[in-house]
Amino acid sequence: MTNQQTATIENTDENLSQLTDKFINGKQKDQLQLIPQLIALREEGWQVLMKFLQTSDVNEVDIVRGKVYGQLYTLKEPITEEFIKAHFPDGIIPLNSQRNLDYQPLNQLLVEQKFQDADTLTRRLLCELAGHGAVQRKWVYFTEVDQFPTTDLQTIDNLWRLHSEGKFGFSVQRKLWLSVGKDFPKLWPKIGWKNDNNWTQYPNQFTWDMSAPVGHLPLLNQLRGVRVAASLFAHPAWSEFTMNNG
User: In this protein, which residues make up the domain named GUN4 N-terminal ARM-like repeat (predicted)?
Assistant: First the structure.
């Protein structure tokens, strides 16, 4: 082995050690930025991220864990596929449902950042939660929102937040709504659903990737007015969400 090769290995080891320390002890914003750098170091970096997933809280909706999982998942390398299959075959948070709905397909779409498909599936799941009438008509009455089980609504929201670095989700939209004094006309442009007093046209004018404004997804049927959104934001799921998530 040449001196140059030895120096390269030592530099790589030092770089890995520094990155690992910064990642493990860093703040959330820094951790999110360091994940791609660890991925770029290939197997040694992947091992750091896999260990991180195993030693962090599986019940916590941690957007750093969400990004780590998503990055490892999309690698499609034998070592990462085997790791995910062995340790996280159903994802990294519980997919609880009081109605026995299967949230694995939604989890899969969001992990793969297929946000438009995930949005479509989310609407279908909300119809299932609302009941047979909503499934038949393919949209939800505002009076049906009260029927949504807290557990299911939180599971859907948790998945959206987990796999979007905290940018998307009903609770994110609700927080923005509260920040503008519960004023829906102010909320719509803030989340990109209205521009110059014109409604954003579905689907081509919406943004289906991480460059979208905070709170842009998932979509509600805003063209039927604010009543569905108002009912959803008033759902008791969010009082429990606040207590459980600090």
Answer: 11-89
